[in-house]
Amino acid sequence: MLEGRLEPPKASPLPYSPRNRKNAVSQQQEIDLAADGAEPAARPLADRMRPASLDEYVGQTHILGPDKPLTRALAAGRIHSMILWGPPGTGKTTLARLLAARVDMRFVQISAVMAGVKDIRAAVAEAQKTQQTTGQGTLLFVDEVHRFNKAQQDGLLPYVEDGTVVLVGATTENPSFEVNNALLSRTRTYVLRALDAEAIRSLIDRALNDADRGLAGLGVTMDAALRDQLAARSDGDARRALNLLELAADIAAGTEDRTITQAELEEVLSAGLRRFDKGGDYFYDQMSALHKSVRGTDPDAALYWLSRMLEAGADPRYVARRITRMASEDIGNADPRALRIALDAWETYERLGSPEGELAIAQAAAYMACAPKSNAVYKAFNAAWADAKNRGSLEVPMHIRNAPTRLMKDLGYSDGYRYAHNEDDAYAAGETYLPEALVGTRYYEPAPRGLEIKIGEKLARLRERDATHAPRQTRSHPEGDDGGSGN
User: Fold this and answer.
1) Which of 293, 279, 347 is nearest to 317 (CA)?
2) Most exposed of 45, 105, 130, 368 (fewest Cβ within 10 Å)?
3) Percent of the chain surpassing pLDDT 70
4) By C-alpha distance, which of 349, 282, 267 is closest to 313?
């Protein structure tokens, strides 16, 4: 286990070996973009088209625009530790590389998926050695930093604090949940946004027109409408856009006119998936959007978000379960049929499977969105739960206790209980059923919508009748028992 400060090893950095997970540090992967030895043409288009400077970097103007904190720091020739949080293809790795180049720092990249304690130590040791021999600082880029465990994250703290490294962590997950508070407090979090279609289009144009790094050497053409279509369907992911463009260009290069057509574009787009991560932020964001659309009585939005989730691979059973929850939480007794419809949709899906059964889930979602809304039961249950949890074990009043034996009856169990069916309208006016300390408490207040209008009117009439009867003097202990020792 990694505890406290990591002492760097005295040995030289580990040599390359497949058995040490390619060393995760990959001999530090310094900023020279061609230093990996691969011929430019052999590298993927998305890698070849990485910006060579911040001037070529597209998007993220909300953090790189004029007078932004990061821009001011770069202008002063310094940089701070940070977490870059954003969806795939928004330029997290590229930005880290360009930041290091701008302030003349060594760029060292490790993957939290592959790296272990040994790799961290090697990176720190090399950073200290470089600082001592050349005075150059090191930017340590940790990809998928959320995959580091607590001990590994804590192990970075002293080196971030003393300036041995400037840490740049990249994550697609919410850092407030996945990154330790201690590390968050020593870094600044920047949110990188999915690129808009205009930004993606500029990257597509650049790749098609660049003869050195791009596709111009292939002589492939693509008309403006198809470029716009590719940009719009790349889901804000620059890497995905360039990968799809490269696939389409490879197909077109084998044709006589070397033109990317609609058919070729559709061929490569058909394999693509929308941005979605089961169990991650996008998953819960889209589920939240579905729930809020239902609550907001917008069936169109509800069906859209449902379709987005199912099309991207969400488990229909999970969605059906959440819709069933919505029926109780947001509709409740305003329309009790909603719960039955949700359960029927769930059962229908279990019988039919995908894709046939998904229509039943859509039917339920549309019904939930259009149904009258009430969270009265939800609020009442939460309030009653809070009292049950926080008010201690309040005694059951004697008159509503079970009395199966003669002894219990002699002690007053069930004494004075009024059988409601023998009363007018099957209602024992003035009777109480709550513990003595809670008599008069109101948890359930029906909403003035749907069936709860009638429920509310009924309760109001019954409470008026209660007011004409003297309240019962409740007892919580058997006769002769003072609730103490019993002596």
Assistant:
1) 347
2) 130
3) 85
4) 282
Q: How many other C-beta atoms are found inside a 10 Å radius of the C-beta of residue 209?
A: 10
**Would you tell me which CATH number, out of the four given (3.40.50.300, 2.30.42.10, 1.10.10.10, 3.40.50.2300), belongs to the domain 18-191?**
3.40.50.300
By the 8 A CB rule, do 31 and 229 touch? no
Helix (H, G, I), strand (E, B) or coil at 191: strand
Alpha helices in 372-451 (DSSP H): 376-390, 406-410
3-class DSSP assignment, residue 411: coil
pTM confidence score: 0.56
Contact 86, 172 (CB under 8 A): yes
Token reading at 105: 């720092």
CA distance 400 to 435: 10
Q: How confident is the model at residue 106 (pLDDT cuts 50, 70, 90)?
A: very high
The residues spanned by each domain of the chain are 18-191, 197-269, 281-370, 395-467
Sign of CA dihedral 239, 245, 246, 251: positive
Beta carbons of 115 and 24 less than 8 angstroms apart? yes
Q: 197: exposed, middle or buried (C-beta count within 10 Å: 0-12, 13-18, 19+)?
A: middle
pLDDT digits 0-9 by tens, 126-183: 999 999 999 999 999 999 998 888 888 888 899 999 889 999 999 988 888 888 888 9
Write the class of the CATH domain 281-370: mainly alpha
Q: What are the structure tokens assigned to 143, written together?
A: 């990809």
Mean pLDDT within 46-70: 89
Residue 51 · residue 202 · CB < 8 Å: no
Strand partners, 191: 85
Assess whether pLDDT exceeds 90 at residue 270.
no
Q: Tell me whether strands 259-260 and 138-143 are parallel, antiparallel or unpaired.
A: unpaired
